[in-house]
């Protein structure tokens, strides 16, 4: 049985110096400005963020804050898997929750959600209502080992199930996922329904082959998603087909990597606009965004983080083989690019027992609206009870 080994983040000073040298030496004058956001990342916004990166951002302070979370690594057949493991106090009876990020996110997306679930006594609740939390870095991301070859969501689902059951010893658990975390979580519920007894999604991304759009609303949604893929999906097509080529550029340019990822935080977040310009800082902390970037750049994981797109095409993981039977909740945040499907369409692929239209919040819901996110997850999780052990009967 794999064991979990305590882990502390400690980026080498030489790596930090290299990043700072590259950031400060970026040739801004040689990059033309297409103006605004119509062609991608706005130059003026990126330059302002990078100036803070070079002159104000404190990685060591962020590193210390992240190290306030109990972290571990465990061996798998794909190398070591990094994860945060927050345990509730003795006597708490809630099921554990596995929280899964996507791209270009990280385990740090859940920094403001985790204490609300693991330490409710800090927010007006009681410690007995705490959940154990497991928050991994996906394989090939951050402090998980670099992959030897691309793998997709279904293979990763098996790794996460084994982390929860073989390494950590949980018999039953709940999964929460968005972006790739949604796909991985869906495959966990699909393939391991005896263990994954609750699924909470803020992106109902997968469907099975028989889930056809039939109503006008369902057909309109599918048409909208096709238009969105045309206007916003170039990154995914490139990462699905030529991630290695992209990797050569992004590994050598911290500023390029930041632009590649931060543009998504602008396009996919639910941001207010001022004079037609998205106001990133109204929703996101620049320091938190830079920390997310650093979890890719400082660890040298830009390339392998994109391999999941290619790996998924080889992993038999695009369409579910049958509908998910695990009780499923959807927190339907108004994601401006990956908008939630009509409930009727999602119900063809998932056993939907809870559907919550959210008034605000986009693709990075745990970062954008942590209080609403945590509250909806808690409300759902409190309805899920572990089945009685064989030979026992539930209490009257």
UniProtKB/TrEMBL annotation:
Protein name as it appears in the record: Epoxide hydrolase
Q: Which UniProt keywords apply?
A: Aromatic hydrocarbons catabolism, Hydrolase
Domain Epoxide hydrolase N-terminal span(s) in chain numbering: 6-110
Q: Which domain of life is it from?
A: Bacteria
**From which organism does this entry originate?**
Sphingomonas pokkalii
The UniProt entry's sequence similarity note says:
Belongs to the peptidase S33 family.
Gene Ontology molecular function, alphabetical: epoxide hydrolase activity
The family database entries (InterPro entries) matched by this protein are listed as: AB_hydrolase_fold, Epox_hydrolase-like, Epoxide_hydro_N, Epoxide_hydrolase
Q: What is the lineage of its organism?
A: Bacteria, Pseudomonadati, Pseudomonadota, Alphaproteobacteria, Sphingomonadales
